[in-house]
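Researcher: Go.
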Amino acid sequence: MNPSTEPRRKTGGGYLFLPKRWARGSFLKWLRRTHGWIGLWGASLGLLFGFSGILLNHHEVMKIPAAKVETTEAQLALPEPLPGDPQALAAWLGEKFRLDARHAKILREPARTALWNGVSVEQPPRWQITLRTPRDSVQAEYWPGNRFVTVKHGSGNLFALLTNLHKGVGLGVAWVLLADTLAGGLIVLSLTGILLWTRLYGGRLAAAGVGLGSLGLAFGLAWQALGG
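Model: Structure:
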């Protein structure tokens, strides 16, 4: 029989230290499926973060006037009895503007002595409260004892909403974790993509290891140089 016509036999060379079960085609198929499904999820979130990222990147330099916020300021009369603490005032503002007050940012300044035209003046305590959603924001300033509270209300358009979603403004832990899945997905896509490129052969695995190791070393040196 002509040697050139003999069927080629599969060899296990090139896998080095990897377990034998990894040398099978089923593991590579699993890698492709994992890569594909995570890529689909990343593409879905990537549309949102990519579009809003373009707006953020060009907002300062190219002055894209896409994101707009309409702001109004007014003094609102407080109900009786007057709020006894900032949390009570935040809850009232949340009901007034239909916003979630559970994650309100509260700044409570105690009474202090201030100089006014060279004269010492006793300044009463002051509360500053901020409520935010991706579209709306409420900033309130209140001097305890007053029957009115000064409120600035801002309402953004669709592009402002998208940029705030990108930055996670006015959102809770659930959105932060959802955004983390995109970052984690990119890491998994990178690793599975490298493994698919190597096809689990020793030479390519070694090359990928050297490349990743060099990249990690460069990052570490740069971090050290920056004083990290």
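Model: DSSP finds five helices and seven strands in the chain.
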